[in-house]
Predict the 3D structure of the following.
Amino acid sequence: MPELPEVETVRRGLEKNIIGKKISKVKIYRKKNFEGNKKDIINKKVEKVLRYGKYLAIELEEFHFLLVHLKMTGQLLYREEKGIKKDEENESVYDSAKLPNKYTRVEIQFHDDTFLFFNDLRAFGWVKVKKFNKEPLPEKLFDREFGPEPFSKDFTFKYLKKILGNTRRAIKTVIMDQKDIAGVGNIYAAEALFCARIDPRRPANKVVKEDPKKVKQLLPCIKKALKKGIKYSGSTAENGSFRDIDGERGEMQNHLKVYGREGEECPACDGEIKKIKVGGRGTYFCPKCQN
DNA sequence: TGATATGTTATCTT
DNA sequence: CAAGATAACATATC
């Protein structure tokens, strides 16, 4: 679930709460979700909290990093203390009145006895410890390539035209590819394509050739969709897993135009929102006005 | 009960 | 080899 806006929501929460804190203890509940040597980060102070696409990097002293990817159902939960949170009850499996719980994979304790829990029901996510000799580029940090951040100056119309014009893949698949654009996932891809009135199934190169105007629209549409997602602190569907570091749901699900709205009337015309598969993923769009 | 789920990546196919 | 498609990861829900 977590895409750029959700991960950015978590990043901001962490920035507010753990900068300057020193790690005192690391407890690993599930080895598969942890990589590296936990001793490397003990007694190290948190200096920065960074985000690259959907990836998080907590930078500690002397170029030590605590890296996190939430994948589908991961959560980073900050607590002043262990145990049961007063007046809280679990309504869904993704709630966490009590911490740690059965889905807690890693527990970070700070010197002031506050905690950061990495919870992940499906356990696809991970926490890694890495160290460097100097400030690393994101490519080095995560051992992978990143497309430009949607809010950076590198994300231009020229660039968008280039990545779309180069391939016959469905346009939705391309804008979700992290090597092409960092941070866009299934929800915000659907919203951006609706905003630009583009059929998500269309081969990307065809859209560039036949509808350059729509591609020009798509650029601000991607930014707007993500910005709105950040504004509403991310999206948490009915049975969704996303929570901020206080365990709170996002609000963006109430402002989505097509994602998750199968069968509802299109907000732009009198068509009906349909759900199909594109590149194996659930895809919501209005067949009447997106073409 | 089998299909499905918001992410990424290894592997298979064309 | 490249591009694109698909399976796999682990668990809950309908």
